[in-house]
Design brief:
By secondary structure, this protein is an alpha/beta fold. 32% of the residues lie in helices and 18% in strands. The protein has helices at 57-64, 90-102, 113-122, 139-148, 164-173, 185-198, 232-243, 251-258, 269-281, and strands spanning 8-9, 27-28, 38-39, 69-70, 75-76, 82-86, 106-110, 127-131, 155-159, 177-180, 207-209, 212-215, 220-223, 226-228, 290-293, 297-300. Helix 3 (113-122) runs parallel beside helix 4 (139-148). The chain is elongated, with a radius of gyration of 25 Å.
Length: 305
């Protein structure tokens, strides 16, 4: 097995799994047969399960009702990727660190939200694995503060919760992905690789055009802190224009994105909606941010431009 951080892992070394209190906290590998490591995270296993002891995988799978996953026997990374794991469960944090380092990643651990926030703010990580239930500062707050500070490092939320509201809150707060414990290690790595392919492009939870703020998650629009009441269709139009960030958007594009495919009504309905939107977002504030570009379409710009 290559040293951590070297960029390569030949696999099959048979590292002993930690089994204190009967819970896996490591990798159960193939014992040198070149088939790669089997991984169990957060599952109860027999206390005598070791790399050098015979293991009936089919029986264990049946007993645990858990699918074993097998990673590839040889992993090589041309460039070291740096990952921050923010997890307060020491065993799981250690497991994740060893597993990710075996994949060729460089890994830092933080055991509470405060430390995780500091590390994420001070270091250029390629991705962050972030638990939600953390001491001091929870994962939602860590994610929100990073996004507010303009830190767009891809974040994978990791939690024992499985409620759809928690998942929605994680994504609306600014997380890029979500994984519920117990999870397959192979799936975790696949999610991380997908995030790394996307990179750290800016993906704000709120869209700001000057002092006009659009929040798609809660479907609110404010200007200079004042709430603006928009209909559902008006909000869809404003959001689409805001996402284009000052670009000219044609009537055809607006009809395609704010109305359904089957709409075959009068395209001049756009002009009616634009008049109503101006009356709500511009006139009360004595500004002109929604502009008409004659013969081309409309664009939304910061006030005074």
């Amino acid at each position: 097995r290559a040293a951590a951080g070297s960029g390569c892992d030949a696999g099959g070394s048979g590292e002993q799994a930690e089994t204190d209190d009967g819970r896996v906290a490591g990798l159960l590998e193939s014992g040198g047969h070149g088939k790669g490591p089997f991984v169990l995270l957060g599952a109860e296993v027999p206390s005598r399960c070791r790399h050098d002891a015979p293991v009936d995988l089919e029986r264990t799978r049946s007993d645990l009702k858990l699918s074993f996953r097998r990673t590839s026997g040889f992993v090589c990374h041309a460039v070291t990727v740096r990952i921050l794991v923010v997890e307060d469960d020491k065993r799981l944090a250690a497991t994740l660190r060893r597993g990710l380092e075996a994949e060729g990643f460089a890994v830092d651990n933080a055991l509470d939200g405060e430390q995780g926030l500091w590390l994420a703010s001070e270091n250029p990580y390629d991705a962050i694995v972030l638990d939600i239930m953390l001491p001091k500062v929870n994962g939602f707050q860590v994610c929100a503060r990073l996004r507010e500070a303009g830190n767009w490092t891809p974040i994978l939320m990791l939690t024992a919760k499985d409620g759809e509201l928690d998942e929605a809150e994680a994504l609306d707060t600014g997380a890029d992905d979500y994984l519920t414990k117990p999870f397959s290690y192979v799936v975790l790595v696949a999610h991380l690789r997908a995030l790394l392919r996307r990179g750290a492009a800016e993906r704000p939870a709120q869209i700001k055009i000057g002092d006009l703020v659009i929040d798609p998650a809660v479907r609110t629009c404010t200007r200079a802190g004042a709430l603006i009441e928009l209909t559902a269709k008006e909000f869809s139009i404003v959001e689409f224009l805001a996402r284009r960030n000052g670009e000219v958007v044609s009537k055809a594009d607006l009809l395609e994105h704010a109305w359904d495919f089957a709409y075959d009504g009068d395209p001049n309905v756009i002009e009616v909606h634009m008049s109503n939107i101006r009356r709500k977002i511009d006139k009360p504030f004595r500004t002109e941010s929604l502009r008409t570009v004659r013969g081309a379409g409309y664009r939304l710009v910061p006030s005074g431009r």
